């Protein structure tokens, strides 16, 4: 079991949405401190004020997690002050909801930088210290989009497929090193935080509430759960994708369940300095 109590937890994208909520819940579970990385200075300031006024210890860094130099500098600050966090939650990410033909190269590069390189760079910065200590828990917030294709999510889904493959491979590597080096991969469907504003919930796949999914994530961390898929029907995707012919799978998920039209009216939540279709991670 991984204990949050009296531990240091670092959360990327931790100044809003489920990142901020997970930070709050970790502190309520008696974490010694929460370290919040985010690109949004206003969100960081508000998070710091709210958590410290509640009597908790929180430290914030303004970091573009897709920038290797910024990640390395912030990681050095953390290591010098606190050592490696006991729990690292790679939560930061972005989504561009449009057909691939309409994507700009800037959008493609930034999505891959933040969604893929973010988790890898941040983990790489702390992993040697975790390995030397013989203990650490890495939590990668991926997406149900890592398990199936979806129109208007091509780059986002591609980035999440990449992170899923990396996260599971990393888990196997760390299991070969030591029993207390853990990786949990989280694959939620749409979450009601504004990131996917405008989406239509597929059949039998309700929009997840932030409190529900964050509780599930923290319970998965505590139990050292390898994979967390929410809601339950997401657990069926690998099986259906594996046994059904592609056209049948497209009919079931696309036409019957409505997954392939779920992004048709996507608007999203504006990121800092971006248009509404370019939303920050929940």
What does this protein look like?
By secondary structure, this protein is α/β, with parallel strands linked by helices. It has a single domain, classed as Rossmann fold (3-Layer(aba) Sandwich), CATH 3.40.50. The chain is built from 8 helices and 9 strands. The strands form 2 sheets. It has a 7-stranded parallel beta sheet, with helices on both faces. Strands 5-9 form a two-stranded antiparallel sheet. The longest helix is centred in the middle third of the chain and has 29 residues, at 105-133.
Give a quick precis of the structure.
The protein has helices at 17-28, 41-53, 68-82, 105-133, 154-177, 210-222, 237-243, 246-256, and strands at residues 8-12, 33-38, 58-62, 87-90, 94-96, 136-141, 181-188, 227-230, 278-280.
The termini sit apart by: 26 Å
Please bin the fraction of helical residues.
40-55%
What string gives the helices and strands in order? Answer: EHEHEHEEHEHEHEHHE
Overall number of structural domains? 1
CATH architecture: 3-Layer(aba) Sandwich
The helix count comes to 8
CATH class: Alpha Beta
| CATH topology descriptor | Rossmann fold
| CATH-defined superfamily | NAD(P)-binding Rossmann-like Domain
- Outline the biggest β-sheet: 7 strands, parallel
Tell me the fraction of residues in β-strands, as a range.
15-25%
Radius of gyration: 18 Å
Mean pLDDT: 93
Report strand order across the widest sheet. Answer: 3-2-1-4-6-7-8
Shape: globular
Structural class: alpha/beta
The low-pLDDT segments are 272-282
Q: How many strand elements? A: 9
């Amino acid at each position: 079991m991984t204990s949050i109590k009296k531990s240091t937890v670092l959360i990327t994208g931790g100044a809003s949405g489920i990142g901020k909520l997970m930070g709050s819940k970790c502190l309520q579970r008696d974490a010694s401190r929460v370290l919040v990385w985010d690109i949004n200075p206003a969100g960081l300031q508000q998070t710091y004020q709210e958590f410290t006024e509640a009597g908790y210890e929180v430290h914030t860094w303004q970091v573009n997690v897709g920038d290797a130099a910024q990640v390395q500098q912030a990681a050095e600050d953390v290591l010098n002050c606190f050592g490696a966090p006991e729990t690292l939650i790679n939560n930061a990410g972005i989504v561009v909801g449009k057909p691939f033909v309409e994507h700009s190269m800037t959008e493609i590069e930034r999505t891959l930088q933040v969604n893929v390189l973010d988790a890898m760079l941040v983990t790489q910065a702390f992993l040697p210290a975790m390995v030397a200590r013989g203990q650490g828990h890495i939590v990668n917030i991926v997406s149900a989009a890592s398990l199936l294709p979806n129109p208007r999510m091509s780059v986002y889904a591609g980035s999440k497929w990449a992170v899923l493959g990396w996260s599971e491979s990393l888990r196997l590597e760390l299991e070969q090193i030591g029993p207390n080096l853990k990786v949990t991969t989280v694959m939620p469907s749409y979450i009601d935080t504004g990131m996917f504003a405008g989406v239509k919930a597929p059949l039998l796949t309700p929009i997840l509430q932030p409190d529900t999914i964050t509780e599930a994530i923290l319970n998965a961390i505590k139990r050292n759960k390898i994979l967390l898929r929410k809601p339950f029907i997401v657990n069926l995707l690998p099986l259906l994708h594996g046994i059904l012919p592609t056209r049948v799978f497209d009919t079931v998920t696309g036409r019957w369940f409505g997954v392939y039209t779920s992004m048709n009216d996507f608007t999203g939540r504006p990121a800092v300095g971006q248009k509404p279709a370019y939303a920050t991670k929940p």
